[in-house]
Design goal:
With 206 residues, the chain is an alpha/beta fold. It has 8 helices and 5 strands, in the order βαβααβαααβαβα. A 5-stranded parallel sheet has the order 1-2-3-4-5. The radius of gyration is 17 Å and the shape is globular. It starts with 11 loop residues before the first strand and ends with a helix.
Amino acid sequence: LLQHVPLERTPVHLEPTADVLRPASLLLEVLAKKAGTAKQSLRGSLGIDPIAALARHGASKMDVARTLTEAAPLVTSLLKDAPGLRALLVSSRPWADAGATSVHELAWSIATGVEYLRELERAGVPPGEAARSMQFALSVGGQFFPEIAKLRAARLLWSKVVAASGGAPESQAMALHARTASATKTRRDPWVNILRGTAESFAAVV
């Protein structure tokens, strides 16, 4: 699939739903085989998000602590060799798709980020470095102004978390991806979906 993709100009974002480490290793194998692709130019996310996988599948064999321990060397190496390629993802999709409110979505996303900082610190990765290797992905629902406020609040909350963890100011910025919410869409009236998607996209842009 990626054989003819100019990866030095094309960001690639993964969001695996079960085995969260294997797709990352496969992508890195592809990058290693593509001659002429400088790692410093790579952009995207490897999508390592074990808590979202656990939330999505319920009773799962996912071991969050072990997964993050295994991911720690990758986090460190990418920060050095490919700083534009973030290893970790904090996705609110499992909760938003299940009907979470904006407050729940914020709370569980920030809590997930805190857990990742703690586990990576236990594995030898300082919180500031762990924060710079993390990307957040939040869903944007149909309440226009509250959704704008939610995205602004997410940035503020995360900066406070990283600051309290000892991260430098340059580590406190949240890398944020927003997507229109699945829970607001209907199967029977696509025209309404167009209106909702437009309002949600504009709220995210603002």
